[in-house]
Amino acid sequence: MKLSTKTRYGTRIIIELALQLNKGAIQVSKISSSQKIPVKYLEQLLRTLKQAGLVKSVRGPKGGHLLVKNPEEIFLGEIVRLFEGQTDLVACVSSPETCEMAADCLVREAWYDATSVLYEKLDNISIADLIQSNGKYNPAACVSR
Predict the structure, then answer these.
(1) How far apart are CA 128 and CA 19, in angstroms?
(2) What is 5-67's CATH number?
(3) Phi and psi for 133 in degrees, rounded to 5?
(4) Residues 30-77: pLDDT tens digits?
(5) In sequence order, what are the residues at sequence separation of 6 or more whose Cβ sits closer than 8 angstroms to the Cβ of residue 128?
(6) Centroid of chain to Cα 103
(7) Are 75 and 124 in contact (CB under 8 A)?
(8) What is the reported pTM?
(9) How far is the CA of 144 from the CAs of 55, 138, 141, in angstroms?
(10) CB 13 within 8 A of CB 37
């Protein structure tokens, strides 16, 4: 699976807001500058994040954007599903009718298992885990939730 730019940038937006958590609302221009995301694209992604209940906007001179949830409550799996949908490694995992060999396929269950393991892992990595690792993510530090 290859993650889209939306997913990668969306995750970076959430991380930026988490890093600035106790500093008030963060303006689009600051997020754009620090994360190297074009403003127009950033605004589109923020709309999606707001609709999902992860981010809220604050109007006024000190306005900007804030996380709605704590970084400990936001998991990579949630962000991936938001921007990608529930993506399987191969289409026949969730839609066996897309392959005429699905019923007799010897590898389909392995693809299903691999997809499950991927999302199980992503569902156990929080934004807080990434921030606390300071760029040196340690999977052993993330315990099953």
Answers:
(1) 9
(2) 1.10.10.10
(3) -80, -15
(4) 999 999 999 999 999 999 999 999 999 999 888 899 999 999 999 999
(5) 18, 70, 71, 72
(6) 33
(7) yes
(8) 0.84
(9) 25, 13, 10
(10) yes
Domain boundaries, the chain: 5-67, 75-126
Which one-letter amino acid corresponds to residue 123? Answer: D
CA pair distance 144, 35, nearest whole angstrom: 29
Percent of the chain with pLDDT over 70: 92
Residue linked to tokens 């889209």:
4
The Cα 9–Cα 44 span in angstroms is 11
Q: What is the pLDDT of residue 145?
A: 44
d(CA 30, CA 134): 20
Token pair 């569902």 is at which residue?
123
Distance CA 131, CA 128 (A): 5
